[in-house]
Amino acid sequence: MISEALRGSINDKISAGIYVASHFIVLGIIALLTGQPFIFPSLGPSAYLMATGETKRAAGGYHVIGGHFVAVITGSIAYHPIADGLVATEELGEAGRFAPEIFQLAASSTVAMVLCTVGMLAAKTNHPAACATTLIVALGLLTGPLNITIIMGSVVILYVLHEKVLYPGAKRLGLEPDDPRPVDDDDKDP
Fold first, then answer.
1. What are the HPP transmembrane region domain coordinates in residue numbering (predicted)?
2. Which residue, 98, 117, 129, 177, is most buried by CB atoms nearer than 10 A?
3. In sequence order, which residues have a C-beta less than 8 Å from that of residue 134 and are 6 or more positions away?
């Protein structure tokens, strides 16, 4: 016989897997239909935070959407004047040691991370996954107005899908995940 504690743990794991799969199936279909990058690395940690029932400090809409918004703005502010036109996947594979392009990408990334950190703290958006988004932009992987719009569209779709479809469905089915971390009084939304 499975104990209640273990059963809850299994339910949490199952619901988290279903959540994450559902997020990425929907975004994957959108990417397939549009041919646009509606899936990118920093969505993984965002989906994980929502799927595992992490505290509102880390997963609320203000934090998820606001954090990624701060990230795309700060990534763009760093990338365009410092490394415009460079793409990390190309430069790091082709440029030699001490290449100015690598210095530019490293500088862009550093400036983006500093600005993103300060920006999220100032805006009180606590979403660490957004730091990956600022690097995606600062390294030239997704830049320009269309890609920034796609990034933000993906984040909004991810969050709305979670809040309006997946979470209510999981709750009705008894698969609502328990937050794996303790919540302190200091961790509340602004």
1. 12-156
2. 129
3. 70, 71, 72, 74, 75, 78, 112, 113, 115, 116
Which alpha helices (DSSP H) does 35-143 contain, by range?
A: 43-51, 56-59, 61-83, 88-94, 100-123, 129-138
| Weakest-pLDDT range from 36-40, 123-127, 130-134, 142-146 | 123-127
Orientation of helix 144-161 relative to helix 4-34, angle to 10°: 150
DSSP character at residue 96: -
Position 125 in a domain = yes
Q: Which domain holds residue 35?
A: 8-180
Is residue 171 assigned to a domain? yes
Q: What distances in angstroms separate CA 83 from CA 6, 68, 169, one per listed residue?
A: 51, 21, 44
In a domain, 1, yes or no: no
Q: Is residue 68 part of a domain?
A: yes
The domain total for the chain is: 1
At residue 47, what is the residue type?
Answer: A
Using the Cα atoms of residue 96, residue 98, residue 103 and residue 109 in order, give the sign of their dihedral: positive
Residue 148 sits at φ, ψ, to 5 deg, of -65, -40
Residue with tokens 């935070």: 49
Structure token pair of residue 103: 């210095």
pLDDT tens, residue by residue, 82-121: 999 999 988 877 777 788 999 999 999 999 999 999 999 9
